[in-house]
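Subject: sequence -> structure tokens, single chain

Hey, anyone have a minute? Need the predicted structure for the following. Not urgent.
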Amino acid sequence: MYSVGIVTISDKGARGERVDESGRVLTEMVSAQGWEVAETRLISDDFNGIVDTLIELCDRRKLHLVLTTGGTGFGERDNTPEATLEVAERLVPGLPEAMRAESAKITPRAYLSRAVAGIRKHTLIVNLPGSPKAVRECLAVILPALPHGLDMLAGNAHECARET
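Reply:
Had a minute. Here:
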């Protein structure tokens, strides 16, 4: 079983002005996989706060996966990709590329997402959009690939070649 952290990044949510529907969607989808939602957080768009949260979930909590929602747009306070890049040791560009490509079939605005994905130690961090609909669509795109990647990070899988 994988341990997962879900971090909603929203100034309005952190101030109690918005209900965290995207975090709820992620919790439902992760739980449906049989994975443990070990931690949920609702934090502001503060760069240092995002960095500190990601480091805590990766280094101290040693979670397998951290999913963020929100803060990937063009707004002045949208700091999630930069904070993720600050803590990531290796990038995983294919995940956000796949999310953008599939989402663009629904709306061309998908190409405006600045989401990134990366690895810190043995934790995979993936940025997702802020809307519940987009969260559901994007996570569904990458979900089939995640178990193999998480197994590799945990040292439990080595072969990437598909068997015929």
